[in-house]
Design goal:
about 375 residues, alpha/beta, 4-stranded antiparallel β-sheet, about 25% helix, globular
Length: about 375
């Protein structure tokens, strides 16, 4: 094993809060009865610190087969390096108590072709069990039932660990908390509220976020911030219309809502397989690649800042336009799903810096400490 070291919107009980006004941005109203923790989970106890674990044998690019033994070791080493503990169970206990009710936030928007890999998710559950968390207190969650079903998580998970989706159809709202929401009018739409996933408010005491490494047509990239934000609220797709997207400010605003911000205590990014164009979906096999890595941290801004470089470098190597290219010149002449040199929205990778401005983490690359491990 080789190691190298490298380089708000507060929520007040019973009060609807307006976001700070910024010229040209939508005006948000946040409704929450939950107070922030003394140390909110984002950015948590390790702001600006990220551990990257690379293992070439973790996934076979020819078959997409993932090695559970290698993944288990990657996870142990990542947790040890992040916390400085000598036993992986002690590392987990820095974030999770055996009495906690844990939600594992999946990323299934591109499932089954690209999603939080079941082997990775299962290993998180196994290590939580080894830490003393009962299986009945672990739930893997996502918004849409069909996406979750397509990934076949129960086949991999330890017995007793649950998989839950907020809705069986896209417009169902029973799985969301009517008392906790963000209200904003983007384009004069009829429904201007986005409600929080119900178990986050009512059941989970801790949340582990498991995003993928993906390009995104609207947000530039989709990593920790977008997965925990858009993936934990309903009625979020309304932020896009024609070429305009409000992901710049909406992602950070959602991630900052309590109790989501305080209870999301750990970020584990699945970068075994990744998407360099067309995300959040995998429209064609030519757009997938294999970083064979996982990243660990508590700071979603720092992790997504590093993710931007991963996707940008890959797009550059493939001769594609930058994730920072916001031109719509070719949108009518090419198919975004096939052509990496066109955009389907005005990209907003600046959402990461905006979230940093809300206190969710460290954006300045010079202040991010990256610890790299090779297995």
């Amino acid at each position: 094993m080789q190691r190298r070291d490298f380089l708000t919107l507060p929520s007040v009980a019973g009060v609807a809060l307006a976001a700070p006004k910024m010229d040209g941005l939508p005006q948000y109203r946040v409704q929450s009865s939950y107070k922030a923790a003394a140390m909110p989970g984002m950015p948590g106890p390790f702001p600006g610190q990220v551990v990257n674990v690379h293992a070439a044998k973790s996934i076979d690019p020819a078959t997409d087969t993932v090695d559970p033994v290698v993944v288990a070791e990657m996870m142990k080493q990542g947790m040890l390096a992040l916390t400085g503990e000598k036993d992986y169970r002690a590392a987990w206990r820095r974030f999770i108590d055996p009495k906690d009710v844990v939600g594992i936030k999946l990323n299934c928007s591109g499932a089954p072709k690209i999603c939080s890999h079941p082997v990775v998710v299962a290993e998180i559950a196994k290590q939580l069990l080894a830490t003393g968390v009962p299986a009945k207190n672990i739930t893997c969650y996502e918004r849409f039932q069909d996406q979750v079903d397509s990934a076949k998580y129960p086949k991999y998970l330890p017995e007793g660990v649950q998989v839950w989706a907020a809705s069986s159809t896209r417009d169902a709202i029973n799985g969301y908390d009517p008392r906790t929401y963000v209200e904003v009018d983007f384009f004069g739409e009829d429904d201007t509220r986005s409600n929080l996933v119900r178990p986050i408010a009512e059941r989970f005491t801790k949340i582990i976020n498991v995003p993928n490494m993906k390009d995104h047509g609207a947000a530039g990239v989709t990593g920790c911030l977008k997965n925990i934000a858009y993936g934990s609220f309903h009625n979020v797709a309304r932020s896009h219309r024609f070429e305009k997207t409000n992901t710049f400010s909406f992602i950070g605003t959602l991630a900052n809502v309590e109790p989501l911000r305080s209870r999301t205590v750990l970020q584990i990014m699945d970068g075994l397989k990744a998407v360099w164009h067309g995300g959040p979906f995998l429209h064609a096999d030519k757009f997938k690649f294999y970083p064979a890595r996982m990243m660990f941290g508590t700071d979603p801004v720092a992790m997504d800042r590093l993710l931007t470089d991963v996707i940008e470098d890959k797009r550059k190597a493939e001769g594609a336009i930058s994730v920072f290219n916001r031109s719509m010149d070719h949108v009518k002449k090419a198919d975004f799903r096939k052509d990496p040199n066109t955009n389907n929205f005005i990209r907003e990778p600046g959402h990461i810096e905006f979230a940093g401005g809300l206190g969710l983490g460290v954006f300045d690359i010079a202040k991010i400490k990256l610890k790299e491990i090779s297995l």
